[in-house]
Specification:
Radius of gyration of chain C: 19 Å
Number of strands of chain C: 14
Number of domains of chain C: 3
CATH class of the largest domain in chain C: Alpha Beta
Shape of chain C: globular
CATH topology of the largest domain in chain B: Ubiquitin-like (UB roll)
Radius of gyration of chain B: 17 Å
Largest sheet of chain C: 5 strands, antiparallel
Chains: A alpha+beta (984), B alpha+beta (174), C alpha+beta (272)
Strand content of chain B: 15-25%
Order of helices and strands of chain B: EEEHEEEHHHH
Largest interface: A-C, 68 and 61 residues
CATH architecture of the largest domain in chain B: Roll
Distance between the termini of chain C: 49 Å
CATH architecture of the largest domain in chain C: 2-Layer Sandwich
Order of helices and strands of chain C: EHEHEEEHHHHHHEEHEEEEEEEHH
CATH superfamily of the largest domain in chain B: Beta-grasp domain
Oligomer: heterotrimer
Chain lengths: 984, 174, 272
């Protein structure tokens, strides 16, 4: 007719979003204007992983011209309440710390000023006095009886523990000929969207109402959390989202505490306040995926059939349980048997708190942490039984004829044909050829491996799954929670044009294009005729707690709801048209912008004329049609029931299937894993837009690759965060991401209006373990954890290191995570030990010796306080130093302990000095151990060792000089000192 | 010699997308902030402010530059191009058009959230002028100077290669 | 992430720049390409009171050759040098290393001398200067002096330069007859600072191997024309002597391994 395809759905049309975005006309949060008088916020963050806040000195910051206010946690606490969590536990989580900090990056104060530059100037003037406490970052260590406790009321760091049994796992394990186990430690990573968080908030005291613009992404259950924290009813928290958002991958759920912080600040200063998070803040303190320690065992029969699984999961949610956590642990609860028909399952879930950034939504949400051990275990079963890993997978897959399939833990898998998907993937992906390639490479002595992963990708979360963390009795008390409301509004304007509005809050996924396709099909229009609005306003638009952009719910749920809304309107339009054409509504076809009689094609009306009727001539409408102007549909799938008394839960509505395999070669010299081939087969049900589906797969793959090889939100054992910039938190770039082969089959979901399932997260679940399986295959190792860094793989690929030649000490390998900088030195000076001893105890002399000292105060005979400027090269900062002397053996030996704190971070150190008579002079020997935290550690960790060595060396060089000289100082060293610019 | 005091704002004049502009800035004002909040050219995005992500890449005198690592006062008298200047002027009947490169991005779904896209476009626009017949490897390295978290890069590489061919006149898309 | 306040001085001549450095000393910083300095400013790691922009000083933008040296002025951008016709013939090691310096976009702004002044222990340009026996030409109002690269780089971000001095140029010895050069580096990603970078120069008299990314400065060592296990032993000794340490991206052992293996590769490449 007009060149339109039979249906727009299923076509890879150009996106309606793109011309705007490509020409720089996007409207992201920082592109939107603000009200005159809007102030700008900057946040002071903790440099300590764990410390008591003893004092915050804000007077100098407040006095800076342009600064409107400096607010602390105490100020905020006066008008806000703690953020409620999903678990009732004595854990008080607030938007800003009050008396104690529990992770590096925790907000401690906020400056509100005329612009961001001035606000940051004022941050430099705030002095916080911390009393450091021991930190714990390892989840297993945090459970030790002697571990530092984060929340005193909890009595330990275990925030939740539940045990589950499905079927009869004990019997299965007792009977099975094999028990095969794996332990994995899944590291921390994050989605790291290129756009950071942003919040613009204002408060009307007369209406006691907040109006907030934030690049939040949902779930909107968090709206309730934010409103309660701000102590207003939900109708007084108007939350708006900008038209465009620069990516989220779950992470922008985590802007919620900052909505509280900035909204409260706006209320306290009486002016609108804007905050755009910077990248250092984002990496340190936005949201991390959980790290998890898992021990998984399988009861296996002789053929490799898995009879039972035994899961022990230890989930690390960081310093606070922030809603919706511990959802990462329970999102997959229905899927703990993956793609396999395993009827007996035992699960122990523990949630622990550590001195790290609180966790939250990150693409894949719980999937990577589950599939890593599960699919590593499937490979181990093949290796240990000497069977083909493909056979192991095939033997255990859920049979196609059993769908809809109820898993042992309660999920209802909607549709699938896993064996068929596996067959097609192996055939079309060239698995046989890849095996031959591996054999060939190995024959040449190369390190080549093949990895496989079979994954069920859940989508459309049941809002009730998180209540599985509660016991059945607790759930009964709290009342049932279940379902997932999706909604869409379709409206017709007086010219008969169609507008669609949804609460899906896209972050770049192209929702507007797909909705235009879906609605165009319903009305027989072109996508270009449909206008789709996705910037949500909670005060005016339809939404519910499940709204938002997560759990890959758009295609299965939101697009389906839009279709249902449009169909309702179409039915009414058909009635109107039928009455005008004197035919039956059933006789009418909507196509080509017209409404036409099927029986009598001469009977035809333009779509837009009928679509406008309800505006212009409501009196002419057939009596029972009502209006045909606007239709809002709320759709919640009946399959999403509440957890049962036996803790079975259908945690998600849809279940896609992924079968990945890959060939990886490891370079023996560099340890780098080169991805030679990567095949990913997807069954995501009906595909609405093939280009976008493949875009989701490629993007998910790249993030999965990042998690597997490059990315880690790394912490030292002392709680210092050391991946604080994009030079250390490494996102894969174009030169690291290979091309992948994408395959599809489609078994439409019977549970969704369009037959579609989610597809956005699958490769974040499948790719890390698929790559790890290939690496383990290449290296022939049983245990391997992420990230698969070159250093790690090289160490596995090589034997022992060549010993150091005579005269060079072999450095003892530091424990991983031990960031203590250690050093020693010695020098000989002309003065006697007694003279030196006196100098070390004299504050006036010390002032001249301490590098960069601005003066030393003697607090007691053994305690000193100094202000110092320290640094190397151009990097320098001002610090307050507290030094005490102990273990004094005059005039021979002393131990110095000290702490420095300043804008660039903090340090704790301990040193030992010994003075030994040496002829007429004294031999000075010193050793030191220093730990540095805060900003300088998070962005410059690799440079600290050299800097410490130099600064401490400086002190003793100065001591030697002052004591009457040692060796003459060369002019080169004089210049170096000048370059160090110590002593200003 | 020009000495600009930190306590004052100073007028900076340059050409932005072919149009002479003036703006008053402090010496420390980053070019990103001057373009976006001073001149309203919000198409240049800020992703990291330490020169790694590449979202803010623009062209100064025809060469790529991270605007976040450039002080506004440094572009005095320079020719600055941003994403807003990439598309040709609307045609006679008022239809807005995209450049060959932009159109190739749209065809290949080479963007999702679009936040990093302006920087990548500005890099590729400069690179394809310098290297009309690029290898896939060379294009990949140039795109390697940017972080994109959505696409996995392959569609960006495809779009760039196709745009290069079209710019050379080897291929044509309508 | 916004820089702290500073005055900005745009110098039109080298004398103006030197006068400013003379006046402000250590409170002044030279601003050239800004690819290292401005991130440090944005992170507030450094707080100069005045920035001296030298990029409009025409004489500093020159690349010249003189007595078998390639002289690169302080305002010469990395991309400009990389595009110099004949660079691969003049200084083959530099031509091999420049594509590894940052990214195409940052090379378009960053300068050769700025990289030397920043003195990151992993950076390629300081490594090339050290490997080749290049020099750094310093100038103040008081005097001019030329410092060999091997003593100029004194540690992590530490250089042998007085506060009132600026780098006027660096010099790279040009290709010598019957001499082979090779460069290789391994980073986590393309464009990252090297975990280990190796540069080798081999002639009839012997081997010179320089290593970056391991010690706190690029470090060169000369060997006779060793082969086989004698070369392995020499490389092992060098690897241990560099006192590698663990960091987020690589272990000390991994770095030593790369010195041994990559070192051998570049030596063999330079020999062939």
């Amino acid at each position: 007719m007009d060149g339109s395809p039979a249906t727009w759905v299923g076509q890879s049309i150009e996106r309606v979003e793109d011309a705007t975005l490509l020409s720089g006309r996007g409207r992201y949060i920082d592109d939107l204007g603000t009200r005159p008088g809007t102030l700008h916020a900057a946040i002071l963050r903790s440099s300590h992983a764990h410390a008591a806040i003893e004092a915050i000195e804000v007077a100098a910051a407040r006095a800076l011209p342009g600064v409107a206010a400096v607010l602390t946690g105490t100020d905020l606490a006066a008008i806000t309440t703690p953020l409620v969590a999903s678990v009732r536990a004595p854990i008080e989580a607030r938007a800003m710390a009050t008396d104690r900090v529990r992770y590096v990056g925790e907000p401690v104060a906020v400056v509100v000023a005329a612009d961001r530059y001035i606000a940051e100037d004022a941050l430099d003037l705030i002095e916080v006095t911390y009393r450091p406490r021991l930190a714990v970052v390892d989840p297993e260590a945090a459970l030790a009886p002697a571990a530092p406790v984060l929340h005193d009321g909890l009595g330990g760091n275990l925030a939740s523990e539940r045990a589950f049994t499905y079927g009869d796992p004990d019997a299965a394990f007792a009977q099975a000929p094999h028990r095969i186990s794996i332990t994995s430690r899944y590291p921390r990573n994050t989605g790291s969207p290129i756009e950071t968080y942003g919040v613009i908030a204002e408060y009307d005291p007369h209406e006691d109402a907040f109006d907030v613009l934030a690049n939040f992404q949902g779930p909107f259950s968090i709206h309730a959390v934010v409103a309660r924290a701000l102590a207003v009813p939900g109708n007084r928290l108007r939350l708006r989202m900008p038209p465009d958002s620069g990516g989220s991958f779950g992470v922008k759920q985590g802007v919620a505490p900052y909505v509280v912080l900035i909204a409260a600040a706006a209320r306290l200063v009486g002016r609108p306040v804007k905050w755009i998070e910077d990248r250092l803040e984002h990496l340190a303190a936005s949201v991390a995926a959980t790290n998890r320690v898992t021990t998984l065992s399988a009861a296996v029969d002789r053929d490799g059939r898995v009879l039972a699984l035994d899961w022990d999961q230890l989930e690390d949610c960081g310093a606070y349980l922030r809603a919706p956590e511990p959802a990462t642990l329970y999102r997959m609860h229905g899927n703990m048997t993956g793609a396999y028909a395993i009827r007996h399952v035992k699960i122990r879930n523990r949630v622990v708190l550590t001195n790290k950034t609180p966790t939250g939504l990150v693409r894949g949400f719980g999937g990577p942490q589950v599939y890593y051990p599960l699919e590593r275990l499937m490979q181990r079963i093949a290796v240990e039984l000497g069977l083909d890993p493909i056979d192991i997978i095939r033997r255990n897959l859920i049979p196609a004829e059993t769908f809809p399939y109820r898993t042992a833990t309660g999920a209802l898998y909607d549709s699938g044909d896993y064996a068929h998907a596996l067959d097609i993937a192996l055939r079309d992906g060239g698995y046989q050829a890849l095996c031959e390639k591996r054999d060939h490479a190995r024959a040449e002595g190369r390190l080549y491996g093949i990895g496989i992963a079979a994954v069920v990708e859940p989508s459309v979360s049941n809002m009730g799954y998180i209540t599985t963390v509660l016991t059945a009795a607790e759930r009964r008390k709290a009342g049932p929670k279940n379902g997932a409301q999706a909604n869409a509004t379709v409206s017709l304007d007086p010219l008969g044009a169609v507008t669609v509005q949804v609460a899906s809050v896209p972050q770049g996924q192209g929702h507007r294009t797909v909705l235009a396709q879906v609605i165009a099909d319903v009305f027989g229009l072109r996508p270009i005729d449909i206008r789709v609005i996705t910037d949500l306003d909670t005060a005016k638009d339809a939404w519910s707690i499940a709204s938002g952009n997560y759990s890959s719910r758009f295609a299965p749920a939101v697009a389906g709801a839009a279709k249902l809304a449009a169909e309702k309107l179409r039915a009414r339009l058909a009635r109107i048209a039928a009455s005008q054409l004197n035919t039956l509504a059933d006789d009418l076809v909507f196509a080509g912008g017209k409404i036409t009689s099927r029986c009598n094609p001469g009977l035809v009306l333009p779509f837009n004329r009928i679509a406008a009727t309800s505006h212009w001539a409501p009196g002419t409408m057939p009596d029972d049609v009502g209006q045909a102007i606007r239709e809002t549909v709320f759709w919640t799938p009946p399959e999403l029931t509440a957890p049962t008394e036996a803790d079975e839960v259908n945690s998600s509505l849809c279940h896609g299937f992924i079968l990945d395999f890959c060939g990886v070669e490891i370079d023996r010299i560099t340890g780098k894993a080169r991805i030679d081939k990567y095949v990913t087969m997807h069954d995501c049900g009906t595909i609405l837009h093939p280009g976008m589906v493949d875009g989701q797969i490629r993007g998910g793959f790249a993030q999965g690759l990042g998690a597997a090889v490059f990315e880690e939100l790394a912490y030292g054992d002392d709680g210092a965060f050391i991946a604080g910039s994009f030079a250390d938190y490494l996102l894969p770039t174009a030169t690291e991401v290979p091309r992948i082969d994408i395959l599809h089959i489609a078994t439409p979901s019977p549970f969704t209006p369009l037959g579609a399932k989610g597809v956005g997260e699958g490769n974040c679940m499948s790719t890390p373990v698929c790559l790890a399986n290939a690496v383990a295959d290449a290296l022939g190792v049983a245990a391997i954890d992420l990230p698969l860094t070159p250093a790690k793989l090289a160490a596995l690929a090589r034997g022992d290191e060549a010993p150091p030649p005579a005269g060079i000490a072999s450095t003892k390998a530091a424990k991983p995570g031990d960031r203590t900088l250690r050093g020693a030195g010695e020098t000989t000076v002309a003065a006697s030990p007694e003279t030196l001893w006196a100098m070390l105890l004299d504050p006036d002399i010390l002032a001249g010796l301490i590098p960069g000292s601005h003066g030393v105060r003697k607090l007691s005979d053994t305690r000193f306080q100094a202000t110092v400027t320290l640094g190397i090269g151009p990097v320098k900062g001002k610090y307050r130093a507290d030094v005490s002397l102990a273990d004094l053996t005059p005039p021979r030996e002393a131990t110095l302990t000290g702490a420095i704190t300043g804008g660039l971070g903090s340090g704790d150190g301990r040193g030992c000095v010994t003075l030994t008579p040496d002829g007429a002079g004294t031999a000075i020997a010193y050793t030191y151990e220093v730990a540095v935290g805060g900003k300088i550690a998070s962005i410059g960790d690799r440079l600290l060792d050299g800097a410490t060595k130099i600064i401490i060396g400086q002190f003793f060089a100065a001591l030697a000089r002052k004591a009457g000289g040692s060796k003459p100082t060369s002019s080169r060293f004089a210049r170096l000192r000048a370059w160090l610019r110590i002593g200003r | 010699m020009t000495l600009l005091n930190q306590k004052q704002k100073h007028r900076v004049s340059f050409t932005l997308n072919g149009v002479p502009v003036e703006i008053e800035v402090a010496p420390r004002t980053l070019l990103t902030d001057a373009l976006r909040h001073g001149l309203g050219a919000t198409g240049t995005h800020v992703g990291c402010e330490h020169g790694v992500c590449g979202a803010c890449t623009i062209q100064i005198n025809g060469a790529p530059a991270r605007a976040c690592l450039t002080l506004a006062v440094q572009v005095e008298g320079c020719v600055v191009r941003t994403v807003e200047g990439l598309a040709p002027a609307p045609d006679q009947d008022g239809q807005y058009r995209l450049s060959i490169l932009q159109a190739a991005f749209r065809r290949h779904h080479a963007l999702q959230c679009g936040f990093c896209t302006a920087g990548i476009l500005m890099s590729l626009d400069a690179f394809l002028r310098e290297t009309p017949l690029p290898s896939v490897e060379a294009i990949t390295e140039v795109i390697g100077g940017h972080l994109c978290r959505c696409t996995g890069y392959a569609p960006i590489i495809d779009a760039a290669m196709e745009a290069a061919a079209e710019l050379r006149g080897d291929a044509k898309h309508v | 992430m916004k820089p702290p306040p500073f005055d900005y001085l745009r110098a039109d001549s080298i004398d103006e720049a030197l006068a400013a450095l003379h006046q402000h000393g250590g409170d002044a910083r030279v601003l050239a390409g800004g690819q290292s300095l401005v991130p440090m400013l944005n992170m507030r790691l450094t707080r100069p009171s005045v920035l001296v922009d030298i990029m409009r000083v025409a004489s500093l933008g020159e690349i010249t050759t003189q007595r078998n040296e390639l002289i690169v002025g302080a305002a010469v951008r990395q991309a400009t040098l990389q595009q110099r016709p004949g660079l691969a013939n003049e200084v083959p090691l530099l031509a091999a290393a420049l594509p590894w310096v940052g990214h195409w976009q940052t090379r378009a702004r960053g300068t050769i001398c700025g990289s030397a002044a920043h003195a990151d222990p992993s950076a390629e340009i300081p490594l090339c200067l050290t490997a080749l026996g290049g020099t750094i030409r310093l100038r103040s109002r008081r005097k001019r002096r030329t410092v060999p690269a091997e003593t100029f780089f004194a540690g992590t971000m530490l250089i042998d330069k007085d506060d009132d001095e600026m780098i006027e140029a660096v010099t790279f010895p040009m290709r010598r007859p019957n001499t082979g050069y090779a460069f290789a580096e391994v980073g986590r990603r393309h464009g990252d600072f090297a975990m280990v970078a190796c540069a080798a120069m081999v002639d009839v008299a012997g081997i010179r191997l320089a290593v970056g990314g391991v010690a706190d400065r690029p470090t060169a060592r000369a060997f006779p024309l060793l082969e086989g296990s004698a070369l392995d032993d020499a490389l092992n000794e060098f690897a241990w002597a560099l006192e590698a340490r663990d960091d987020l991206h690589a272990t000390a052992r991994y770095r030593r391994d790369l010195v041994r293996q990559l070192g051998r590769q570049v030596i063999e490449a330079a020999r062939s």
